Amino acid sequence: MDLAAEIRALVGDRGLLTGDDVRMRSCDPFRNVPPEGPLIVRPASTEELSAVMRLCHERGQCVVTHGGRTGVAGGAFVGADEIAISLERMNVIEEICPVTSLAVVGAGVTIEALQNAAAAQGLFYPIDLGAKGTATIGGSIATNAGGNRVLRWGMTRQNVLGLEAVLADGTVVSAMNRLIKNNTGYDVKQVFIGAEGTTGIVTRAVMRLVPALASQSVAFVAVDSEQALLDLLGRARKLPTLSAFEVMWPDYYDLVAASGTDRRPLAQGRHAYVLIEAMGYDRELDAQVFEAFLESVYTDGLVVDAVLAASDKQIAELWRVREGAECIVREMSPFVSSDVSLDVRDVSRFVDLVRSGLAEHYPIVRTATFGHLGDNNIHLALHVGPDTLAQEPNVERIMFDALRTFGGALTAEHGIGQFKRAFLPDHKHPGEMTVMGAVRAALDPAGLLNRDVLF
Ligand SMILES: Cc1cc2nc3c(=O)[nH]c(=O)nc-3n(C[C@H](O)[C@H](O)[C@H](O)COP(=O)(O)OP(=O)(O)OC[C@H]3O[C@@H](n4cnc5c(N)ncnc54)[C@H](O)[C@@H]3O)c2cc1C
Predict the structure, then answer these.
(1) Among the four residues 4, 96, 166, 298, which has the most C-beta atoms within 10 Å?
(2) Which family does it belong to (predicted)?
(3) ipTM for this prediction
(4) Concatenated DSSP letters for 51-84?
């Protein structure tokens, strides 16, 4: 029997895609990159996946795990000699517990589905990102996804209580901890969180929830200097209800503002724009505190223009300004994207250094700069002409060389994937690389899982 037939025998007809069903999928959210390998395996349970991995292990068959394929680091790309394992059928929300504020979910559940199920029980799942309708819990654990509210509730890592995973040889690891405090030996789940699928395939998880918030206040403000921006961040951090501090520089804001007046809440031409969000449990008091905060930063001259959302509709509209990734795709393609972390005081100097470095090599340089400044994290999209993608290695080298001068991190939340793999050794201590190599080799000695990802 060939491999496809053997896998079909384990997972049934619904569990295996071949031919056009494989080629019609993309492994990248922004460009069409079909899997090069012939099969997508869709197990319906941990047991099925374990059996599939035992078979792959016997055959030395490399696999690439697929969640929602919204990852932007090339981590889900499938080579010609690899097969994809999709968690899409393991999408059951098994439990939402209002007493212990947790959810037990299959890895294929989307972030949005978990948010909605939590909301129906008076709870809130705080990880929130533009791709939440498609990105899965498994994928967000594998990439340790961040998103818009990290400065209040942390990254995905801080919201995972426990998980279950299948190793390269089919071994099932159940670390489905439900307790906040548990120091019983190694915290095994950490080996899988942020490992980008190189240590095991996450199949289920226990996620932390918080009580549903009663209030959400959102303001969109403009500042006229870098110092005002940093001072504003410092002042906003003192708001106990602060949940997001999202900055958009003019190169980004002008792009999104041009797409329609509903995405231009303030006049253009300022130094930077900030979406500030606060969420709390007392509607009246929270609104008063937020308005008093806005008034004080305006009176003190930190903010030069501002709009305060007066309804849920306006809140959604203001967030749509910040979530304008599709404008970048439409107006700036092809582009190289990045999500670096660095000291907030260095952001502008870093972006200037990247721009001037690129200008030495390319006549056309366009940038779009925005991000989660409250978490030290900015997204920088770069376009250097029609052959930007062919120039990607050089563009990234210029950007990451600039980053090293400021001691920044190569990736804040998207991960290394395949795209940034070559740069990893320059940004990680040799001792760290040794530990990472030892962990990976111990769990997947044959190198079957996401072979070309990370290092
Ligand atoms: C419009 C847009 C906005 C985004 N905004 C953010 C943001 O604000 N913050 C952020 O952090 N990211 C963001 N992302 C990136 C992306 O959504 C996240 O990385 C997300 O966590 C990926 O989840 P996924 O299910 O799509 O994973 P995939 O893209 O399918 O996979 C990502 C990586 O994880 C591995 N993987 C997937 N599932 C599993 C599993 N069950 N077990 C083991 N390994 C697995 C894959 O092999 C791959 O290496 C954004 C993407 C888009 C398109």
Answers:
(1) 166
(2) Belongs to the FAD-binding oxidoreductase/transferase type 4 family.
(3) 0.99
(4) HHHHHHHHHT-EEEEESSS--SSSTT---TTEEE
Q: For residue 108, give the 3-state DSSP assignment.
A: coil
How much of the chain is helix, strand and coil, in % rounded to 5? 40, 20, 40
User: Given this model, what pLDDT does residue 262 score?
Assistant: 85
- Identical fold between 215-323 and 329-431: yes
Question: Right CATH number for 3-86 from 3.90.1310.10, 3.30.43.10, 3.40.50.360, 3.40.50.1820?
Answer: 3.30.43.10
DSSP 359-428: HTT-S--EEEEEEEGGGTEEEEEEE-STTTTTTHHHHHHHHHHHHHHTT-BS-SSS--TTTTGGGHHHHS
Nearest residue to 103 via CA among 312, 92, 430: 92
Q: List C-alpha distances in Å: 91 to 10, 66, 68.
A: 19, 13, 11
Ligand 1 atom nearest to CA at 202: 42
Residue 82 pLDDT: 98
Q: For the structural domain made of 215-323, what CATH number should be given?
A: 3.30.70.2190
Give mean pLDDT, residues 220-227.
97
- For the chain, the domains span 3-86, 93-211, 215-323, 329-431
Q: 201 CB less than 6 Å from ligand 1? A: yes
Ligand 1: which atom is nearest the Cα of residue 449? Answer: 47
User: Using a 6 Å cutoff on CB, does residue 199 contact ligand 1?
Assistant: no
Ligand 1 lined by 391 (C-beta under 6 Å): no
Of the ranges 166-170, 405-409, 418-422, which is most confident? 166-170
Is the Cβ atom of 444 under 6 angstroms away from ligand 1? Answer: no
> Residue 437: what pLDDT?
98
Residue 385, pLDDT score: 97
3-state secondary structure of 31: coil
Residue 181 has pLDDT above 80, yes or no: yes
Number of C-beta neighbours around residue 241 at 10 A: 20
